[in-house]
Design goal:
It is a single chain. The chain is of the alpha+beta class. The chain folds into four domains: about 5-170, no CATH class; about 175-205, no CATH class; about 210-330, CBS-domain; about 340-425, Uridine Diphospho-n-acetylenolpyruvylglucosamine Reductase, domain 3 (2-Layer Sandwich), CATH 3.30.465. The protein contains 16 helices and 14 strands. The protein has helices spanning about 10-40, 45-50, 55-65, 70-95, 105-130, 135-150, 150-170, 175-185, 190-205, 210, 230-240, 260, 290-300, 320-330, 360-365, 385-390; strands at about 5, 100, 215, 220-225, 240-245, 255-260, 285, 305-310, 315-320, 345, 350-355, 400-405, 405-415, 415-425. The strands form four sheets. Strands 10-11-14-13-12 form a five-stranded antiparallel β-sheet, covered by helices on one side. It has a four-stranded mixed β-sheet with strand order 3-9-8-7. Helix 1 (about 10-40) packs across helix 6, helix 4 runs antiparallel to helix 5 (about 105-130) and helix 8 packs antiparallel against helix 9 (about 190-205). The chain is elongated and about 115 Å long.
Length: about 425
């Protein structure tokens, strides 16, 4: 007895319609499989090309790509539903034509139908679509947009379920910044500079603008009503390439003067209206993270920002160089001078610090734990601020304070502002 034989009588109605539906479903399966490759193979250049086009197809493609999770969920739901229906209809066609004995029916349906489904419904459409994703995505955008609306409830359930499973799976694998910093400390690198760079990368996303900015008292600015001779003199004396320009005071910053913009007019007379060369200032909050600010600098193609507090008052200035120095260390050029260093080691455990140094940098310089003064520093950001927190009063020249095994001696003052602080660390 043959394992597979044709039926003696085949009713046309039992074969024709199921066969036609099977072919249609196979085409739909191919479209679903091809659309997945088409949309998710689009490169950045392809998307830019679509953005320049002003036709409905390009707009549909960009709209679908605006929510890739929902698009992928729609494609997967549609593809699986079509494949299930395809297997059912193909089985009906086979049963209407052939008679099987033993396990041959299972083998035939499993091997032959699965092979045809993979070949014509998965492999061939994906290979074909891969060669021309833009054209195919435009062709399939209309039916996909309809399916996105039709299958929204099922796609929504799939997205929510998969995101919950993903969170549960990754919950126990999260690494804290502290653990990552400890790992960096244990890492053996080729040099101290590499170790500092790794540490800078780890802490980069946790550093606020206020921690690395140049404070208000250190800003060199120009009055808006300054003469052209005064502007040239300031540029020569400071060597800065970008200078804030203010009205009544530094809380009224009206623009940034780029020295390169001034170069073509450097020989103009003293009545030259240099104010028309000002560029619009960019303001950022003091508690903004520097990694976010770096993205803003890249997007706006600027190098400097004015730091303001919650009331809009100017607190300081930050540049692109300040941000980069957090990772690569101090960047110096021919215009930088040695006296600009924020501290100097004058003995085995004795230092002279500039009072404006940030507390974090001060702690690293003396080799203490980063939270060594956390219980007394309060809201202070600089070493001078720490002195005020310790004394609970305005510091004066000659004041001596001691905390956490460290002796502080206020060496020099600049008016009411602390200038230099001598520090002795008890061994």
């Amino acid at each position: 007895m043959d394992a597979i034989t044709l039926k003696e009588s085949i009713e046309l109605s039992q074969v024709l319609w199921p066969s036609l539906i099977t072919v249609i479903l196979l085409i739909l399966s191919a479209m679903a499989s091809g659309s997945e490759v088409a949309f998710f193979s689009l490169t950045h250049n392809d998307i830019e090309e679509l953005e320049t086009r002003n036709d409905s197809g390009a707009h549909r493609v960009l709209d679908l790509l605006s929510n890739p999770d929902r698009l992928l969920a729609t494609i997967l739901v549609a593809n699986n539903m079509v494949n299930i229906c395809l297997v059912i209809m193909a089985t009906r066609v086979v049963d209407a034509i052939f008679v099987f004995s033993g396990a041959w029916e299972f083998i035939f349906n499993t091997v032959i139908i699965t092979f045809l489904l993979l070949l014509f419904g998965e492999i061939m459409p994906k290979v074909f679509t891969q060669s021309n994703p833009v054209r195919m995505s435009l062709l399939l955008s209309a039916p996909l947009k309809f399916l996105r609306w039709l299958l929204y409830p099922l796609a929504f359930i799939l997205i929510r379920t998969s995101s919950r499973v993903s969170r549960l799976a990754s919950k126990g694998n999260e690494i804290s910044i502290e653990e990552l910093a400890d790992a960096v400390d244990l890492t053996e690198t080729g040099s101290e500079e590499e170790q500092k760079m790794l540490s800078g990368i780890v802490s980069f996303g946790q550093t606020e603008v206020v921690e690395i900015m140049h404070s208000r008292v250190d800003i060199t600015g120009l009055e808006f009503d300054a003469t052209f001779d005064e502007v040239r003199k300031t540029i020569v004396e400071t060597g800065y390439s970008r200078i804030p320009v203010y009205g009544d005071d530094l809380d009224d910053v009206r623009g940034i003067l780029y020295v390169k913009d001034l170069l073509p007019y450097i020989s103009e007379n003293k009545d030259f209206e240099w104010q028309r060369l000002l560029r619009k200032p960019y303001f950022v909050p003091e508690h903004m993270m520097i990694d976010d600010l770096l993205k803003k600098f890249q997007k706006k193609k600027i190098h400097i920002a004015i730091v303001v507090d919650e009331y809009g008052a100017t607190q300081g200035l930050i540049s692109l160089e300040d941000i980069l120095e957090e990772v690569v260390g101090e960047i110096t050029d021919e215009s930088d001078e040695d006296e600009d260093k924020l501290y100097e080691k004058i003995g085995e455990n004795t230092y002279i610090f500039d009072a404006k140094i940030h507390i974090g940098e001060f702690i690293r310089a003396i080799g203490f734990d980063e939270n060594a003064f956390a219980d007394v520093e309060g809201h202070a950001e600089t070493l001078a601020g720490l002195m005020m927190e310790l004394k609970r009063d305005l510091p004066r020249r000659g004041d001596e304070l001691e905390s956490h095994g460290v002796k502080f001696f206020i060496a020099t003052m600049d008016g009411r502002r602390v200038d230099k602080i001598k520090v002795e660390v008890n061994a």
